[in-house]
Amino acid sequence: MYLASVEKPAAGRTDRTKRVAGTVLALGTVSLITDVSSEMVSAILPLYLVAGLGLSPAVYGLIDGLYTGATALLRLAGGYVADRARRRKAVAAVGYGLSASMKFGLLAAGTSVPWLSAAIVADRAGKGLRTAPRDALITLSTPAGQLGRAFGVHRAMDTAGAFAGPLVALAVLAASGQAYDSVFVVSGCIAVIGVLVLVLFVGDHRGPRPPAAAVSLTAAAALLRRRPIRMLLLGAVLLGLSTIGDGFVFLLLQRQENLASGWFPLLAVGTSLTYLALAVPFGTLADRIGRAPVVLGGYAALLIVYLLLGSGWGGPVTVVVVLVLYGGYYAATDGVLMALAGPLLPAELRTTGLGLIQTGQALAYLVSSVLFGLAWQRWDAAGAIHAATAFGFVTLSISAILLLRRPADA
Predict the structure, then answer these.
(1) In the chain, domain spans
(2) How many CA atoms lie within 13 A of 34 on its CB side?
(3) 3-state SS class at 266
(4) How confident is the model over 294-316, as pLDDT tens digits?
(5) How many CB atoms lie within 10 A of CB 291?
């Protein structure tokens, strides 16, 4: 059956080459610019909502969950449309453009929580549309044996933007007298530049037109009948349920260490710096020893972060260790999970399959973020993080069984 085929490297693209494809570098540049924009907002948003607008942890948990999870189904829908139309770049461009426009939507929302929530949801809708087509373009332009390294290079470039974003936000706040609106304006202008780079410099991957039956809702649903894909999806969802999100991690660390609000954006900088340093080495390691062990190791690092946040131990060493482990968690999981999934999926439904896995994780994140916010509201921060730690040990154990029993990844 055509559905069972997995794309082979194009002529001239053999495993002997170590060069990263131009598509990967171009998409990395787009992600770098876009992440400067998005992390400018992400770095200040938790403090803006909780300290500035006085929202409770439960309300913040709901908004934080919406930020990633409420538009999760768009990842799957966008992936299917991109595969069906064979226009992955076009779908990604729509997503990047929507996110760019919503930076100005945050400005227009002012202090209205409903309008802020709507702008945040629309911004994440853009991310939901663009992520699967972007990752599919990476997998379709890279030999299967080098996907870990390719995603590592892309995520390193992406994280360079995440590293710079909070610093730019701090500079803008300092220059504007702590005016949050100025951050939204500058962020929107930078995001527009990222869209232009995508349109002008990223090539699409059209490929030969597959039979109509190979790209259909029936064929997409048939992906779940494949045991390796089903096990990977279930494992990814369970791991997503153990993730409480950056905002909560940084808020917990700030309260534990009694950090001044001006230092808050630098917590994201420290995490991004570690991610930037480890993304390529971890991606290369995943290609050599297997991607599932690296992903599981990343979530083990996340559990250690939870343990430290719930231990009450303070001091500069704790801050550094938490940020290093948290950045290591991202480096070991973000791109490596997509590299793990890529070879399991047929080329004609690559974007749909990646969107399916991303949708599962995003919905899981929505649930975990809302529940953690409610737990914080009911039991305080310490009780919430202790519950998250215990649950994380359970999900990691089950996921290890699911992922390590899969057939060896490419």
Answers:
(1) 21-404
(2) 31
(3) helix
(4) 999 999 999 999 999 988 777 78
(5) 30
